[in-house]
């Protein structure tokens, strides 16, 4: 159950900032934790637990060891929880000054998902000769990947569910849009591109991943796996990777060294500041509607990033 409640104000400890939150992002991890799907990964999670791992806001106090000049500054950063709040604790080491030219919601939308999209695009080695299949192309990361693939000069096939999401992908520059809830959608892709694709950016898992893998061009095809939003692992025969001479690469931002993740994040911020990357803010909702926002996320009714405001 997700509900709003009154709790005592938190106080910053050593090396911490106290932030008055202006924007908190909803991510896949938040929804999984609330649904009880992270018990194996986080067996000692204290209950009740305050969700929220991505925040932006104004520093109102600092703990010991932190320069008092930080007070009054606008920052964005990743917390260990508690971001769905009016006041939240942010490690000073994780705080990034809000980039000039970006509002707080845009910065939150790029903080994790922007870094992921840039990292996935790099892992795929996108070029102007590629034909790229982007799954969940109207989602927080997928919508950014459509733009990054087009920026690389690739031909982009965007898959999503429903006309609204397909229209969003088309507006972002996708050359071809396909509803992957339609029976026989892989054949629609084959017909549109005249055969196969060189790159699949895989975030769904299950049957969708299996069909997408089969679309890869032998000898040059490559898949980057960065999520399993269906709750099912990717499906493909490891022997087929060998027999078809294709590659499958995994990308997980949580596994990256801090300096590598910071580089990807800063690159995403810079691209947004220059107008080359535009995160989609699908909804801005008050904190009191967090449960409704989670329900929409689970029902796949959201587009881009959902932001909560206290």
UniProtKB/TrEMBL annotation:
Pfam family, one: ADH_zinc_N
Highest taxon in the source lineage: Bacteria
UniProt keyword Oxidoreductase present: yes
Enoyl reductase (ER) domain location: 1-308
SMART domains (alphabetical): PKS_ER (SM00829)
Keywords per UniProt: NADP, Oxidoreductase
Name of the featured protein: Zinc-binding alcohol dehydrogenase family protein
Organism: Micromonospora rubida
Species lineage: Bacteria, Bacillati, Actinomycetota, Actinomycetes, Micromonosporales
């Amino acid at each position: 159950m997700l509900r709003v409640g009154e709790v005592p104000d938190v106080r910053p400890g050593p090396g911490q900032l106290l932030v008055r939150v202006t924007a908190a992002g909803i991510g896949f991890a938040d929804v999984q934790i609330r649904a009880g799907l992270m018990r194996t990964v986080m067996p000692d999670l204290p209950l009740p637990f305050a969700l929220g791992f991505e925040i932006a806001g104004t520093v109102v106090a600092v703990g010991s060891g932190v320069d008092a000049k930080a007070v009054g500054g606008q920052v964005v950063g990743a917390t260990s929880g508690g971001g769905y709040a009016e006041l939240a604790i942010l490690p000073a080491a994780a705080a990034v000054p809000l980039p000039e030219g970006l509002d707080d919601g845009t910065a939150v939308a790029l903080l994790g998902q922007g870094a992921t999209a840039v990292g996935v695009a790099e892992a795929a080695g996108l070029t102007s000769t590629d034909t790229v299949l982007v799954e969940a192309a109207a989602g927080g990361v997928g919508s950014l990947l459509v733009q990054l693939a087009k920026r690389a000069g690739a031909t982009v096939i965007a898959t999503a569910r429903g006309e609204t999401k397909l229209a969003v992908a088309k507006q972002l520059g996708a050359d071809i849009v396909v509803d992957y809830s339609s029976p026989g959608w892989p054949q629609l892709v084959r017909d549109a591109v005249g055969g196969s694709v060189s790159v699949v950016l895989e975030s769904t898992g299950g049957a969708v991943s299996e069909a997408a893998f089969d679309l890869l061009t032998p000898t040059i095809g490559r898949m980057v796996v960065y999520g399993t939003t269906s709750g099912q692992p990717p499906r493909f025969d490891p022997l087929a990777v060998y027999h078809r001479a294709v590659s499958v690469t995994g990308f997980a931002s949580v596994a990256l060294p801090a300096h590598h993740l910071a580089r990807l994040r800063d690159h995403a911020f810079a691209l947004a500041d220059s107008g080359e990357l535009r995160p989609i803010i699908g909804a801005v909702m008050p904190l009191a509607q967090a449960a409704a926002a989670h329900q929409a996320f689970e029902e796949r009714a959201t587009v881009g990033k959902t932001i909560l405001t206290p």
